[in-house]
Every structure is written in C-alpha cells, then in structure tokens.
C-alpha cells in the first residue's frame, strides 16, 4: 500500500511530492480516447489527473444510477492508474465546470420547498443517496486501498456562492462516513473573503486557490490565510486557467503559449503544486453546455470545450503543450517525458441530405402527449433537457391582428399558428407582444421552447429562470388560454423517425444524411448553412449548433463511427438548412463583430 499525506508539504510514501496535474473530464472525452489523453498527460511529465464527477449524468432520474459506458468513472480511473497517474477527484454535488446546472440534476428543481447547495436536510438526503452509489467506486481506488486517488474535494468554489459552513461540514461528513480516507481539500478564489466563506480550514481540510496568472500575489494571499489559522500547508493552484471557455456570439478566446509556460514556471519556482485547467477540455456533448449568468441576458456556452487547452478538442497537442513540456524539463530534468500521441481526422465534402421530415409530423413517434389546463414547466413533466412543445386551440375574436404573449418562459420560444412561424423570442424578449392575424375560426397554436442550458455559476442557481419551458401561460388579448397538450422532446431516441411523414418549409425539421467510411477517424460536422439545433451521429447527440458562431463545427470522435454506412441527422428549428453537409478535418471558426456583446 502507498500513502499520501499533507504536512508543510505533500508527502507521497513519506517523500516530498510536487503535484503536477492536468484536468481531463471523462464525460467530455469519448472512452475510446481516454488512453490517448491520459497518455499525453503522462508524456508531458505530469504525474496526476484531475476530474470532476457530474451528478446529473450519474443520477439522470431520482434513484436511477448509471456509471457505465461513456461515464464509466471506474474505468477512467483504472486507465489512469495503468499509465502510472495519480488522481484528484472532485465529487461535489456542484461542480461548476461550465456544465449544465453546475452538474446538479435538473429534477431537483421539482422540489420547490428545497434549497439546493445548502444544509437543507432534503437536499442533503439526495446527496447522501447519490454518494451511497458513487463513493464505493472512489473509496476502493484510494491510494491507501491500493488505488491511485490521492485527494478529493469537498464542494467546489463555495466561497463564490455562500458561507453555509453547516453544509460544507455535512458534505465532508457524508464522504468520511462512506469511507473516504485520503486528504480532503477545497478550492476557491485566493482572496480572504472567498476563502473565509468557502473553506473548512478549521476542520483540517486543505485550502487551495484557483487563478490563471499572478501566482506570487495569489500564493501570498493563500499563505496568509493559512497562517491566520495556524497552518503551514503546501501551496497549490487547483485550477491554473490555461485558456477559457467560449459563448455564442463571442470570439474564441486564446492565450499565448509562452505566457502560460511562464505562469507554470512561476508557480513551480515558488514551490507550489498545480492542476492545469483544462489539460484536455473536450466537448459538451448532448445538452450539457452551461450558461453564464447575467442580470438580464444570460450567455450560453458553446458545445466545444476546447478551452484553448494544451490538448485541443480532438486531443492532439498544441503549442501550449510543448511550451509546458519544455518548462517542466528545464525545472525537473530527471522527470521522464515522451513524444505525445496524435490522431488524424478526415474530411468529406458535400454529403447529400437524402431525407427530411417536419417535427410536427413525427410527434407521436417522439413523445406521449400530456394534457393540462395550463402549461407546465418541463421539470414538472419529468423532463430535464431539450425542447418542449405546447399546443392549444385559439378561437378568432377579431379580423385584424390579434395580440398574443408568452408569459414567463425560458430560454427561447418559437410560436406557430396553423404550422406557420409567427415569432421567435429569446430570454428578455419573451413576454413582449406578438401581433398576428388568426386566419381561421379555430386555430392551432404551437409554442416550441428550448432549454439552452442552465447557469453553472453564481447567484442565479436558484432563480426561477432555471425552470425551463412555459412557467405561467400564454395570453391572447388580455386573457390566459387554457386547454393545453404538451410534449416533452428530450430527443434521447430518434431511431424510429418516419422520414416519409412529410416536410413543410419553415418548420422545425430533421434532416438525414448518410456517408460511408472504411475506417473510423475523427471528423468535424460543418454546420454552415444550418440555423440552430442539435446534431446526431449514429443516434448520439453530439451537441448544439447555432449560426451565431463563433465555432461553426461539431466535433465527432472516431469512437462514434463505424466502418460502412454512418448516419448524420440535423435537427434544425429555424427553417434554415442546406441540401449538402460537409465533414471537415479541423474546426471552422468565424471571427465575429463584437459590438453590443456583454
């Protein structure tokens, strides 16, 4: 057995140990590429991998747990161990991570009398049940049990959210009671207010800091807080931000490789340990992108989580990788380094869209109708992610334009009258008047709402805006309309779509294309020519696209493809489409005008 301890320094088997860690989130990298990414981390000369654990994927419905396939945490940790990498695991109920709802399950929102991320007993009971299934996977892989986990984290950046110490102690207790014996830590902004609110320093839980530059000043602040509480702990940057995430309508953010390497050098020369956030960013597959909270206009993050990291979205080394590798070699010449692995990607232009069908013509295949007097938010209907369709009949009361309003909905609403789109409203514009002529005595009114991703950080975690779909109702003239049929559209299974059911110009639709390959390799779907929606490869949702940019491609890992015929389906909501789809060997990024971007 081995040991990992914290005194005035990190000790591995009672010998001084500098943690050289890189973040790889197993849920953002296809399992077929775990070895590739982990090998490249080891080849850099690093000794540890760090990962978050997303509660929402592992408990998609209350009491239903999944640790298999693409989210097989045990297999990921075992692969790291086979390469000689130690692990830091951050199994907090909340992870931030630019991940949908900070990793918390959306079904928590159904319990209106519960306060998530607090000492509320009802919330802690849910965490306890989750930990009953998660912790056995982690506990058996701790370093003192023969595994590779050297440290785990209690909560995540809680000092940027609240100061409920009872809650933090409860999370710590739930972990310890289930057998966690390795050292515990917290990570927060390294200034006193944040550290005071978010740490358990008086309970001997190591305080670490998160920053992307100015290591000397940040470590001085962290050290001062340690000393204020009588501690002489080692210094660690748990998140050394080597790049940044991206949002729709904003230019891609880049960081100079040598500037990053200089920061890494500064941390290490100060005697600190570090975790590169991210080492390999990967992809927000499905509906898992997060959202940045703003006062009125929240900013949704893109599918790509490339992060301008040392490994690009595909997992190949960038100039940052080699700049850091040179720095590590200069500071620690005895550390073994290797040549990193690289993968190829293929291109295939002008694949014909062979079939198409309108959403309204395949509703019975995708969902079962739910009837109610008033519209309900998606969570109340047992849906967590995707789209929700609300349908009713509206009687014509006047010959000229009628005034219609969607009251209190999120995040985006499209209104159709008898199948014709009359309006699209987004966030702060929802609720404004929609003027249209009702052409018939009785008219079908459809409102398609899209959950574009819940906030992952900040004060809006508990806001009503995190409840998606229509939350109050729809008014025609001055009165609420009743008698609704609702359909949950998580699009988690599109295998049985009938493409002969009919297609109508301008309606949300599915577009199917097929392509043949002899050997699977990575590729990128060029979404140019399509408006907004999500794409599926052989039935797997590979993420959202939007012609707002800046990234105009969706990454497809080779593990989702197979020799022979493969299927690509684009679900597009704007009526903007192309008869051809191209696959690219590298991402397509657009430079955007930045006027008016918050």
Keywords:
3 domains, Jelly Rolls, alpha+beta, 8-stranded antiparallel sheet, 8-stranded parallel β-barrel, TIM Barrel, 598 residues, 18% helix, single chain, 10 helices
Q: What percentage of residues falls in helices of 4 or more residues?
A: 10-25%
Question: What is the CATH topology of the largest domain?
Answer: TIM Barrel
Strand content: 25-35%
Distance between the termini: 53 Å
How many domains comprise the coordinates?
3
| Structure class | alpha+beta
What is the tally of beta strands? 31
For the largest beta sheet, what order do the strands appear in spatially?
A: 4-5-6-7-8-9-10-11
Tell me the name of the CATH class of the largest domain.
Answer: Alpha Beta
Low-confidence stretches: none
**How would you name the CATH homologous superfamily of the largest domain?**
Glycosidases
Total number of helical segments? 10
The chain-level mean pLDDT equals 97
Which value, in Å, is the CA radius of gyration? 25 Å
Main sheet overview: 8 strands, parallel, barrel
Quick one: overall form?
A: globular
Q: What is the annotated CATH architecture of the largest domain?
A: Alpha-Beta Barrel
What does this structure look like?
This is Beta-galactosidase. It holds the Pfam family Glyco_hydro_35. Keywords: Glycosidase, Hydrolase. The protein is an alpha+beta fold and 598 residues long. The chain folds into three domains: 312 residues, TIM Barrel (Alpha-Beta Barrel); 98 residues, Galactose-binding domain-like (Jelly Rolls); 127 residues, Jelly Rolls, CATH 2.60.120.260. 18% of the residues lie in helices and 29% in strands. It has ten helices and 31 strands. The strands form six sheets. It has an eight-stranded parallel barrel with strand order 4-5-6-7-8-9-10-11, surrounded by five helices. An eight-stranded antiparallel beta sheet has the order 28-27-30-25-14-31-26-29, with no helix packed on it. A six-stranded antiparallel beta sheet has the order 15-24-16-21-18-19, with no helix packed on it. Strand 1 and strand 2 form a beta hairpin. The N and C termini lie far apart (53 Å).
